[in-house]
Fold:
Amino acid sequence: MTPSVEKVDSGAQLNGEPWASADSRPQAPNIRAVRGLNWRQDPGSPICATRTAMTPANTFAPGHCLYEDEELFVLYKPSGLLVHRGWARAEQVLVDFARGRTRDGAAHPIQRLDRGASGPVLFAKNSDVAGHMAAFAQEGRCRKDYLALVRGETPDALYIDHAISRREDGPRVEARTFARRVAIAETAPRHCSLVVATPLTGRLHQIRRHLKHANHPLYGDGRYGRGELNRAFAVNYGLSRLALHAFHWSAQNPRTNVGLSGVVPIPEDLREPFRQMGFDVECLESQAMQQRELLSRDVKTQLE
Structure:
């Protein structure tokens, strides 16, 4: 099914359909803190949301356009596809799909997305917009929220304030991540939790490193996870990828100052393993959105 929307903003497209906006007001949270946090959301930034009937994301081809307006567009990246060339040789990368949508033929990705992760990647259509969007990202006005499958039973909510490096060989800098549990499954050989995680800073592999630091590493993570558990979950449940999916994105158009957001359904290479683990996959997206709304309030309440 295609997204159902309300008030249409001229020119914008979401999943090939007209874009709409509505105010989103999360409910009050009940959090359990892990470590301290210093971050404040811009109270003047408008929040836009859609009432979306989910479509299985395996219908999205690599580079599928999830949203587009005159300044920005969002492309879908499946697990295994690099955003751009650099660290590894690849015949095709996501920026190859992006170049045909920019006036100068150059690609301007705003934020990275790990090769093993899936989800949306925001692009600017020219270098001026890219500069504005990079500044917005630093201010927290350009964000992604992730669904992650992690080892063990997490607390209802946690936040992690733990310095890590921007690069593998770089100095450690402050890094902050907030997370909320969506569901728990009694899997073997270890139980697992699905959590919504939001990085409040943009560091290399931040969610993966922070959840490992909290003793809840991601399944399918060959770098920061446990190899024997990854292999067991591949055999027992068919999980053959990093269990990290960016299911929600938000940004602000630098020309109109209108807040934008969208939801990217869980892809089939995660849906089926989740189903095998016993999760109610038909309800996961709505549950994740509920926890995301509470997570947004968690941050605000913690700082008041």
